[in-house]
Design brief:
Layout: H1 3-23, H2 31-48, E1 70-72, E2 82-83, H3 86-93, E3 98-104, E4 107-114, E5 117-123, E6 129-131, H4 134-137, E7 153-160, H5 163-171, H6 183-191, H7 196-201, E8 205-213, H8 223-232, E9 240-243, H9 248-258, E10 266-273, H10 276-281, E11 292-295, E12 302-313, E13 318-330, E14 333-339, H11 343-349, E15 356-362, E16 366-372, E17 392-396, E18 406-410, H12 419-427, H13 439-448, H14 464-468, H15 475-487, E19 490-491, H16 493-499, H17 507-516, H18 521-526, H19 529-533, H20 540-550, H21 553-565, E20 567-568, E21 583-586, H22 596-605, E22 609-611, E23 620-622, H23 631-638, E24 643-644, H24 646-654
Parallel strand pairs: 2-11, 19-20, 21-22, 21-23, 23-24
Antiparallel strand pairs: 1-6, 3-9, 3-10, 4-5, 4-7, 7-8, 10-11, 12-13, 12-15, 13-14, 13-18, 15-16, 17-18
Helix pairs in contact: 1-2, 16-17
Length: about 650
């Protein structure tokens, strides 16, 4: 392959990986592989003098796709040049002094204060244009509402969510698949909400790392003085130290010791020249300022041998590959396992039993496979589920240029590994809403033999003594849990139907079924395929799945027991039914609502229906990325179905 073709291939591959990682929370390659490909691209661009439009070496951030108000930055925000070599960082500093600090891993935000009051907050966006989030920034956990300085002040900082807060938020989510993947993505979604009550609940923190405007203050030509001055104004600033080239390696080592214990997510360090005037005199490149440099941890690698691939079934049927290898020491701990994430990565690494592999800890924390030196490719993808023996299938998600990620699933509906799923779904917010019944608690109760079928949830009082004496429990926790369970006894028919976990029956379909059969559960259980097809929005496949579910005597026995525990109330219809007869499909991320479920609730409260796929019956497709080439967008365009953003949907609501 010639160099120009390779450049084009690298640009496409790196941009696709970045999009998957940052916008879809899907990992298609390791950090180490991304960095290696990026460095190869930089070298080829320098060698050939060719830089393609859209190259990640010149792009800064991503295009803004939400419906938040947009605003152009007064001062464009650039990326930072980077290195993993302490010697290179030291050589860059040379005879100058620098300020070393954390490179926090959240969402960069620019705050503007005038007359001591915050007047504007903008996200980084694409570096030129950001999103206006002033109302959200005002409820950040540690941002001052008023400051002593009365002039115009513009500062940059990182909005982050602590690991401790991230864990607390995830513990409240019963469904494993619904849990947030990392603090960075949770923070990004929290900062960009239109409802700042959600932002406040997420406990977002802001750490200032740079001052842009404040020209009438004498900062003594010192970058560290600027940070100290910001601290005096009431801002939390990044942990930082003034250093010279001689002391710099010691400071880097000191930060490295804190990485695994730091409560804030960090993906490296930043070194900024202490002499502000000298730094400005250096100017900038098309992408990087020359007064600062990012340092990424040079991941410690170890060579070992792959013992076997462990296939771990999840509660949704997804079977995850995990590499088990001869134990090695990395970053001060012994590791012997690393997630391979999906079938695509397994194939890309050409893994096989006995292969010599190199492993590392991404950001010094998460074990990953860096490379496979043997490339035997003899690892077998199981044809049957390791938990139940049921048939497996590889599912390929859609992606650009046939680049979809392949994952392995168990097709057995009654796989024992899925047992916990039925409980977590049953207690979830949109089902029976049993607050405080976390997945961890459910697993413990199942292991102890307290829970076998869904109706056992309402019989936990017989195990009061055992539960109270369990680690992490007590009388107060037990009483709170029983109260939540008893509160769930008063419910609606649609909530129960949804909570049962019938294949292809979600919240919307459950409401349609309850309404069609006039909240008569016995009629729901006795209905035929033909009866279900009469419901607008229920097709042949769904109808057959429902009837098959109720044909199972064990399922019916559990439902009859649940009926004895529950009291059903009529479903209320709120407000004017302006969407009566309309069918909506919702896809992509949402910004005006806490989640897509909340948006669906609004649609249904106004008489509309929400389905999962676009068809000729669809009235509107709601997608904030109206120009994307996703399958739903393509289908909607082919059927001449309007694609609208949340903003446009809200306009419909207010007409």
């Amino acid at each position: 392959m010639d160099k120009i073709s390779r450049i084009k291939e690298l640009v496409e591959k790196l941009n696709e990986a970045s999009k998957k990682y940052y916008m879809e929370d899907t990992e298609v390659m390791s950090n180490l592989e991304y960095d290696a490909l990026y460095d190869e691209l930089v070298a080829l661009e320098n060698e050939t003098g060719m830089v393609m439009k859209g190259s990640p070496t010149v792009k800064v951030g991503y295009e803004v796709v939400s419906e938040l108000p947009k605003e152009t930055h007064e001062h464009p925000m650039l990326s930072l040049d980077k290195t993993k070599d302490v010697e290179a960082l030291t050589a860059w500093l040379g005879s100058q002094k620098g300020v070393i600090s954390w490179k926090l891993d959240g969402l960069t935000v620019v705050l503007t204060y005038e007359n001591g009051v915050m007047t504007k907050a903008i996200t980084r966006g694409n570096g030129e244009v950001g999103e206006l989030i002033t109302n959200n920034a005002k409820v950040f956990a540690n941002v001052p509402h008023k400051i002593p300085y009365q002039g115009k002040l513009t500062i940059r900082g990182e909005a982050v969510i602590k690991y401790s807060d991230f864990n607390i938020i995830n513990e409240k989510i019963a469904d494993t698949e619904a849990k947030y993947k990392n603090p960075r993505n949770l923070c990004s979604g929290s900062v960009r909400q239109l409802n700042n009550k959600i932002t406040e609940e997420r406990n977002v923190h802001f750490f200032a790392f740079n001052l842009v405007d404040g020209n009438d203050v004498d900062f003594k030509n010192s970058f560290s003085y600027q940070l100290d001055w910001l601290s005096e104004q009431g801002f939390d600033v990044v942990e930082h130290y003034v250093t010279d080239a001689k002391e710099l390696p010691e400071y880097v080592a000191s930060f490295a010791l804190k990485v695994t214990e730091n409560d804030f997510p960090s993906d490296g360090l930043v070194l900024v020249l202490e002499d502000i005037a000298y730094g400005r005199s250096l100017g900038r490149t098309a992408k990087f300022p020359r007064d600062s440099m990012a340092f990424k941890w040079a991941d410690e690698e170890a060579t070992t041998h792959l013992q076997y691939i462990e296939w771990s079934p999840s509660r949704t049927g997804l079977i995850n590959p995990i590499a088990v290898f001869d134990p090695v020491e990395l970053e001060g701990t012994t590791v012997s396992r690393a997630s391979i994430h999906n079938v695509s990565i397994l194939k890309a690494l050409a893994l096989g039993v006995g292969d010599e592999i190199s492993v590392y800890k991404a950001n010094m924390i998460i074990p990953q496979i860096a490379a496979n030196r043997t490339m035997s490719g003899n690892a077998e993808i199981p044809a049957s589920c390791p938990a139940c023996g049921g048939e497996t299938k590889i599912v390929k998600e859609e992606g650009a240029n046939n680049s979809g990620v392949e994952t392995l699933y168990c097709t057995n509906e009654y796989c024992p590994a899925k047992k916990i799923k039925s409980f977590t779904h049953y207690v979830s917010r949109n089902a029976m809403n049993i607050d405080g019944m976390s997945e961890a608690t459910l697993e413990r109760f199942i292991d102890e033999g307290f829970l076998n079928t869904l109706d056992d949830l309402y019989k936990l009082e017989q195990y009061q003594e055992q539960i109270v004496n369990m680690d992490g429990f007590g009388e107060k926790s037990y009483n709170k849990l029983i109260t939540a369970i008893n509160e769930s006894r008063n419910t609606t028919m649609s909530r129960l139907i949804n909570a049962l976990g019938i294949p292809n029956v979600g919240e919307t379909t459950a409401k349609l079924i309850a309404k069609h059969f006039k909240n008569d559960l016995n009629a729901v259980m006795r209905a035929s395929v033909e009866d279900y097809i009469e419901i607008d929005g229920v097709g042949q496949v769904i109808a057959e799945a429902i009837v098959r579910y109720f044909a199972n005597e064990e399922n019916c026995d559990i439902i009859n027991k649940l009926q004895a525990e529950l009291t059903f109330e009529d479903e209320a219809v709120d407000g004017e039914q302006i969407f009566e007869g309309m069918v909506f499909v919702v896809t992509g991320s949402v910004n005006h609502f806490a989640n897509r479920d909340e948006l669906k609730d609004v649609i249904e409260s106004k008489g509309g229906k929400v389905t999962g796929s676009v068809s000729a019956k669809t009235t509107y497709l709601i997608n904030n990325d109206v120009t994307s080439n996703s399958s739903k967008n393509k289908k909607a365009k082919s059927l001449n179905i309007p694609i609208i953003s949340e903003e446009e949907f809200l306009e419909l609501c207010n007409k």
